[in-house]
From TrEMBL:
<dbReference type="GO" id="GO:0007165">
    <property type="term" value="P:signal transduction"/>
</dbReference>
<dbReference type="Pfam" id="PF06554">
    <property type="entry name" value="Olfactory_mark"/>
</dbReference>
<dbReference type="GO" id="GO:0007608">
    <property type="term" value="P:sensory perception of smell"/>
</dbReference>
<protein>
    <submittedName>
        <fullName>Uncharacterized protein</fullName>
    </submittedName>
</protein>
<dbReference type="InterPro" id="IPR036727">
    <property type="entry name" value="Olfactory_marker_sf"/>
</dbReference>
<dbReference type="InterPro" id="IPR009103">
    <property type="entry name" value="Olfactory_marker"/>
</dbReference>
Length: 166
């Protein structure tokens, strides 16, 4: 197989923050706090250290290959997929819509900066495969990314590599 054909079959998709959806979810939390109301049973509210990210799928027939993740400092990042179509302007995010397993990457404070990030490889493999399965029926998929133990969004680069089938 020539190199040009091999490159055209590999797709690298970057997770991008959806600032509008993140802000809308933050407004829901703020509204509940101001009015003194409680969340609905089963509703999942956005935590202060979380943001909504998205993947846009240019193709629906994908096979998961590899995660590409970098964090320029120490900390922990968890990625939780949202399994259903969700429109926060019309419906609230419910806990039952969250995928298992979640993805977790981290670097400890004592680790040198050039140390590869740690992750739970079996969970990350399964998570990547679930994303590829959902891509068969989706053009877009949403994720909650939580930044913990000193991790910051500005220090994060996250992408997932797929093979596109023709």
């Amino acid at each position: 197989m020539d190199q040009t054909k091999a490159q055209s079959e590999t797709i690298m998709l970057n997770f991008s923050e959806d600032c509008a959806l993140t802000e809308m979810m933050r407004m829901r939390v703020s509204s509940l706090q101001r009015s003194g109301q409680k969340r609905q049973e089963g509703e999942r509210l956005l935590l202060p250290n979380e943001a909504v990210y998205r993947l846009d799928f240019p193709s629906q027939d994908l096979s998961f290959q590899h995660w590409h993740f970098s964090l320029r400092a120490h900390g922990r990042v968890t990625i939780t997929g949202i399994s259903q179509h969700w429109t926060p302007d019309l419906t609230n995010l419910m806990s039952r819509q969250l995928l298992e397993p979640i993805g977790t990457f981290w670097r400890n404070v004592a680790d040198p900066p050039d140390t590869p990030l740690k992750c739970l490889e079996a969970d990350m493999q399964e998570f990547g495969e679930r994303i590829a399965e959902l891509a068969k029926v989706r053009r877009v998929m949403y994720f909650l990314l939580a930044f913990k133990e000193g991790a910051e969004a500005d220090h994060l680069s996250c992408a997932i590599q797929f093979t596109a089938h023709k």
